[in-house]
Specification:
Residues 5-723 form the Alanyl-transfer RNA synthetases family profile domain. With 890 residues, this protein is of the alpha+beta class. The chain is built from 24 helices and 35 strands. The protein is globular. The structure holds serine.
Length: 890
């Protein structure tokens, strides 16, 4: 084939090459790792095959090839800080990879790499420019490179544990702290002697001359949390080559930012900003970040304050700041989406589909950040005054920027770095830690018994079928976290049974309540939780005593159970209705179901309008009216997903799952499916009609991009509506209008009140000036200085200030003290003429007066003000003021 040059052609050539070697092409997985809480973002091609390497998820192929979307920002592999400053780092990049699952190993792994890179009909790269590294003890890899490929020994570099501990090496690849890993061999390309940098393993290795282009991992181990390396079921291969790096080589340029794709993006950014593309670092940052940001939003991440959302926010803010440096005056970053779609939309159709969602989310974030950016930059400039290259900015200042202006610390670091200034990170971390502790203390309201009690005995849950069992066995009792033999009357404690009908808190549903009775006593269950494999009942002995090993009768409170079940099922209907009305980007962020209320948190970046809320409420109630059965089935996770069941990201499900289907059929994405279908382990109604009624009681934001809806069902909904009705009737009665006219009447009343307040203000000012007209008669002379001290009743601070200006002009070279007395509050103001200021200052007068009156105040030498509550001593204090002034002036 002719040599491919465009990035898109290279991507295709790679896939074709491995297809010709019997590899199955597999699409890129989402940037949000599916079912893997150990990973922030997909950061390597192998992520989607993690379980396959571990032998837990067999596939129907043993060889695969992918072009995988990756983000390395936040988390273990984090390149964010380097982007813009090196020739080769990105937040988002495409990783080309081939994989063997227990099929070929080192020999074929290396041979394929060499063939694709150097064969004339593939990339035909000049062999003399290639070097490789191997793990220091990997003689097998050495032999293959040297004897079979024919690479001279001096081009094969052994890299040991250069990061301090065993297996911590550039040539031992680990996905995270745990998971599949193994030694690797990496291929390096020499960009030529005119570029600075040294071979891997030398002190100059971080330069841009020798660039790693392809990493081939020989997957052999499953790393455990404690560092133990367990062997994988079969040795495997995982390779990864950055598309941007290989494109640079094929296009004869030395940096990734000079390849076709980045040239187009940087040109577009320059055009939007009205400048020339001179390869400024900030342009590189913008071109890089628009990719990470757009792909993340396309995959469902929204800017927020924690986790993935926070990393996304940091990336957007960093880009905005760099735009600002280049002179951007208003929102610009969102305008980069269109050029990106033009570049990458063909290979990644999700970008085209989500273009407007991405643009809106970015623009909203830009507008929000623009407000604080200018203020924050000013504060930072003040903090940086006097600091020079090599100095350190205090961690406290960086924390203040973060806390007050939302400057992520890496953004502050990015700015200080331009001036060679470092941040005191240890001090910053201390402040962050203290803040976290404050937040935690504020949220602490309950004791987590499950962490105190470590029960190993698994409990069988029988509550799906029954509320009651009179033949259960007490297997353990605890008091204050310690196992005991019995619990006496009045004692609080925990009971563990061999099986129980009590539902333990989980899946958003609170733990159940009820009673456990034995031959000798009664225990009131006040909460039920999980602790390891056991279900623990927390409560108090209300009669007699409870002994370990007794047989008992466990009874769940049925009224509470049925009310909770109504709320839980209604939560599912609400979730489905929300997605129908607001769009399928709405994802569940949390839920709480008790017998009283239901609460549902979801991602959505603006308030839900009253019209939308009422539509959502109507949809749910239509389903309730339809009285369709609520079906629970156990099935394989794959079948559930196939049926369109909703599951929570990051939640670990077993291979068999419990699926709840409810409601009449609807059409979703052109497919007919039940109104609601979700994985759930909770307790539910039998038919939707059992819910009775759903009433939304509130909607509001709880964090950036996250909304919360609260609602009630069944008799609680009836109660809520009756109360609202009653309040409205009362209001109508008080206002003497019919109920539909209440709102109009309230509007008229508040307009009238506003008019009256204005009128009152005008009158007060009139009174004040009337009083002022006579004031000049009260001027006294103290130590040769004209002094006016006057208390004006019914006058507030605002009017006092106006009056002061008025009188000052009429009384030159004097001291004026005015005291407004309104609504039991004293407003104090003092003015001292310039000629008198050397003897007494206005600030001193107010501080003295306010101090004596038990209030506060202060100001400048010529004018000061303050306030105090009126007290028994007010008159005495004010009448003693001339004497005090005399002592000061005299
Ligand atoms: N997993 C390895 C890497 O990310 C090779 O694909 O470098």
């Amino acid at each position: 084939m002719s040599q491919p040059f465009r990035s898109a052609d290279i991507r295709q050539a790679f896939i074709n090459f491995f297809i010709s070697k019997q590899h199955t092409p597999v699409p890129s997985s989402s940037l949000i790792p599916h079912n893997d809480p150990t990973l922030l973002f997909t950061n390597a091609g192998m992520n989607q095959f993690k379980e396959t390497f571990l032998g837990m998820e067999p596939r129907d192929y043993t060889r695969a090839v992918t072009s995988q979307k990756c983000v390395r920002a936040g988390g273990k592999h984090n390149d964010l800080d380097n982007v813009g400053y090196t020739a080769r780092h990105h937040t988002f990049f495409e990783m080309l990879g081939n994989f063997s699952f227990g099929d070929y190993f080192k020999q074929a792994g290396i041979a394929y790499i060499w063939e694709f890179l150097t064969a004339d009909n593939w990339l035909a790269i000049d062999k003399t420019r290639l070097y490789v590294t191997i793990y220091h003890t990997d003689d097998e890899a050495f032999d293959i490179w040297h004897n079979e490929i024919g690479l001279p020994a001096e081009r094969i570099i052994r890299i040991g544990d250069n990061k301090g501990t065993p297996y911590a090496s550039d040539n031992f690849w680990t996905m995270g702290d745990t998971g599949p890993c193994g030694p690797c061999t990496e291929v390096f390309y020499d960009h030529g002697a005119d570029i600075e940098g040294g071979l891997p393993g030398t002190p100059e290795e971080d330069g841009d001359r020798y660039i790693e282009i392809w990493n081939c991992v020989f997957m052999q181990f499953n790393r455990q949390k404690d560092g133990t390396m367990l062997p994988l079921p079969a040795p495997s291969v995982d390779t990864g080559m950055g598309l941007e790096r290989i494109s640079a080589i094929m296009q004869g340029v030395h940096g990734n930012y000079q390849i076709d794709l980045f040239t187009h993006l940087m040109d577009a950014a320059a055009k939007i900003l009205g400048i020339n593309n001179e390869q400024q670092s900030s342009l590189k940052v913008i071109a890089d970040h628009i990719r990470a940001v757009s792909f993340l939003i396309a995959d469902g991440v929204m800017p927020g304050n924690e986790g993935r959302g926070y990393v996304l926010r940091r990336i957007i803010r960093r880009a905005v700041r760099h735009g600002n440096k280049l002179g951007a005056e208003s929102d610009f970053f969102y305008q980069m989406v269109a050029p990106l779609v033009a570049e990458m939309g063909t290979a990644y159709p999700e970008l085209v589909a989500k273009q407007s969602v991405i643009e809106n989310a970015i623009q909203k974030e830009e507008t929000q950040f623009a407000k604080t950016l200018a203020q924050g930059l000013r504060l930072l400039a003040t903090e940086l005054e006097g600091l020079q290259d090599g100095d350190v900015l205090s961690g406290e200042a960086a924390f203040k920027l973060y806390d007050t202006y939302g400057f992520p610390v890496d953004l502050t670091a990015d700015i200080t770095r331009e001036r060679g200034i470092r941040i005191d990170e240890a001090e910053f971390d201390e402040h962050m830690q203290a803040q976290r502790e404050r937040a935690r203390d504020a949220g602490k309201f309950d004791v987590d018994y499950s962490s105190v009690i470590q029960v190993e005995t698994p409990t069988t849950f029988i509550g799906y079928e029954q509320l009651h069992d009179d033949n259960v066995n007490i297997v353990a009792l605890y008091q204050d976290g310690k196992a005991v033999d019995s619990l006496a009357e009045g004692m609080e404690g925990v009971i563990v049974l061999d099986r129980t009908p009590f539902y333990a808190e989980g899946g958003g549903q609170v733990g159940e309540l009820g009673e456990i009775r034995s031959a000798s006593g009664v225990f009131e269950v006040q909460d039920t939780k999980k602790s390891g494999q056991a279900i623990i009942h927390y409560g108090v002995v209300t009669m007699g005593e409870i002994n370990a090993k007794q047989v008992a009768d466990a009874q769940v409170l049925s009224s509470i159970r049925s009310a909770s079940a109504k709320n839980h099922s209604a939560t599912h209907l609400l979730h489905a209705a929300l997605r129908q009305v607001l769009g399928s980007d709405v994802t569940q962020k949390g839920s709480l179901v008790s017998s009283e209320v239901l609460r549902f948190d979801f991602s959505y970046d603006k308030p839900v309008s009253p019209a939308e809320l009422s539509k959502i409420e109507r949809l749910v109630n239509e389903q309730i009216q339809a009285n369709a059965p609520a079906c629970i089935e156990n099935m394989s996770i794959d079948k559930a997903m196939d049926k369109g069941a909703m599951a929570l990201f990051g939640e670990k499900y077993g291979s068999d799952v419990r699926v709840l289907t409810m409601g009449t059929d609807v059409i979703v994405d052109g497919k007919q499916q039940p109104f609601s279908i979700e994985l759930c382990g909770g307790l539910h109604v039998q038919r939707t009609g059992d819910i009775g009624l759903l009433k939304i009681t509130s909607e509001g934001g709880i964090a950036a991009g996250i909304r919360r809806i609260e609602a009630v069902t069944g008799m609680n909904a009836v109660k809520y509506i009756q109360q609202s009705e009653q309040q409205l009737s009362e209001l109508a009665g008080q206002l003497k209008v019919k109920r539909p006219e209440v709102a109009q009447r309230v509007r008229t009343m508040s307009d009238k009140q506003r008019d009256l307040e204005k009128q009152l203000e005008r009158l007060e000012q009139k009174i004040a000036s009337a009083q002022a007209a006579n004031l000049l008669d009260d001027v006294q002379t103290i130590a040769g200085t004209p002094v006016l001290i006057s208390t004006l009743s019914g006058v507030d601070g605002k009017s006092i200030r106006t009056l002061m200006d008025d009188i000052k002009s009429k009384l030159p070279d004097s001291i004026i003290v005015l005291i407004g007395d309104k609504d039991e509050q004293l407003a104090l103001a003092a003015s001292v003429a310039k000629s008198v200021m050397a003897r007494v200052k206005a600030g001193d007068i107010i501080r003295h007066l306010a101090g004596e009156l038990g209030g506060k105040g202060g100001g400048k030498p010529d004018y000061a003000q303050g306030g105090a509550s009126k007290g028994d001593n007010s008159v005495t204090v004010i009448s003693a003021l001339p004497a005090w002034l005399e002592s000061q002036l005299g």
